[in-house]
Specification:
Blueprint lengths: L2 E3 L6 E3 L3 E2 L14 H13 L4 E3 L8 H13 L5 E6 L6 H15 L4 E6 L10 H13 L3 E7 L3 H9 L6 E7 L11 H7 L3 E5 L30 H21 L3 H10 L4 E3 L6 H8 L8 H11 L8
Parallel strand pairs: 3-4, 4-5, 5-6, 6-7, 7-8, 8-9, 9-10
Antiparallel strand pairs: 1-2
Length: 312
């Protein structure tokens, strides 16, 4: 496993972490079983993964409870635990309460990385109030680092301006081969300011694993509304998957591992794919410890230049 610094926090995190949105319950499909996800987290740890990411909104706290059970077996001190406060709880007192409830569900006395899940979409809660509450938790030692999620550059700049004793160390955003919006502004800004990018949906919810095609797409509640899986989009993606499969076969890797390696090949970027089983956890961890060649990256980029995903 490879590790990088998490912003300027002093924490070292694995370039492949494990995301636990899928631990919300059966919204991700009937094959979601808590015990298997616990085993997946434990297997990830055995393979060098030390970052587990969850959120209070995932299954109304259920994901945090599942992660907490895994931590009991792994040992809390062995994992960097990241969770998020929901956008509805960004008032000072609500945020402090959310942090306490998250710690209780996780069975821990402090959170390594506490993140704002998304900016207040209605801009009714002053960001100053939210960031002061986050810094209060930091000063009290209840959190070791402050992160954000789904923040644009303007949000990042404003949020950072309200901090005086620490800085934002990470921005968790959607990033994969097919969804690259952050490359224009967010990625350069984060790189310039030493803010680690944590890529959620690094496999485009499975579209970049080679498991799906035009005739076979996920039907669970979460992914059935994802436009990436529309027939006209999947036809384009299948051409990309052919290239990824060729690279995977030569490398003795899987398509998912090639796709994840592409994500973490970018400076200052780590990925947090989900895993429902120990086998998926093993596959994810195998995406680190090697590098795509310049030639392979060019092949991928050439095919990506021909793809135009329709989100309408």
């Amino acid at each position: 496993m490879e590790y990088i610094n998490l912003g300027k926090s002093g924490l070292k995190v694995s370039k492949i972490g494990i995301g636990t949105w899928q631990a919300s319950g059966d919204a991700w499909g009937q094959d979601v079983i808590d015990d298997n996800i616990i085993k997946a987290i434990k297997r990830s740890y055995e393979l060098g993964v030390n970052l587990v990411d969850t959120a209070e909104i995932y299954g109304n706290g259920h994901s945090e409870t599942v992660v907490g059970k895994a931590l009991k077996d792994i040992g809390r001190e062995n994992m960097i635990v990241a969770t998020k406060v929901a956008g509805a709880h960004l008032r000072h007192d609500e945020l402090l309460k959310s942090a306490e409830l998250s710690m209780k569900r996780l069975g821990i006395s402090y959170i390594d990385l506490y993140q704002i899940h998304w900016p207040d979409p209605w801009e009714q809660i002053p960001l100053r109030e939210t960031m002061k509450a986050m810094e209060e938790l930091y000063v009290q030692g209840k959190i070791r680092a402050i992160g954000v999620s789904n923040f644009a550059v303007r949000d990042l700049e404003e949020a950072r301006s309200y901090l005086s004793k620490t800085d934002i160390v990470s921005n968790q955003v959607r990033y994969n081969m097919l969804q690259r919006e952050i490359e224009e502004e967010v990625m350069p800004y984060c790189r310039k300011n030493g803010i680690t990018i944590i890529a959620w949906s690094p496999l485009a919810q499975g579209a970049l694993t080679g498991k799906y095609n035009v005739e076979n797409v996920p039907r669970d509640r979460i992914r059935s509304g994802n436009e990436v899986f529309k027939p006209e989009n999947m036809k384009q993606i299948e051409r990309l998957l052919k290239i990824l499969k060729e690279i995977a076969q030569k490398r003795k890797k899987t398509v998912a591992q090639v796709s994840l390696n592409w994500v973490i090949s970018h400076e200052g970027v780590i990925a947090i794919p989900g895993a429902k089983t120990p086998e998926q956890a093993e596959e994810n961890a195998g995406a680190a410890g090697w590098k795509l060649s310049d030639e392979e990256l060019k092949l991928i980029e050439n095919e990506l230049s021909k793809i135009d995903i329709d989100y309408m």
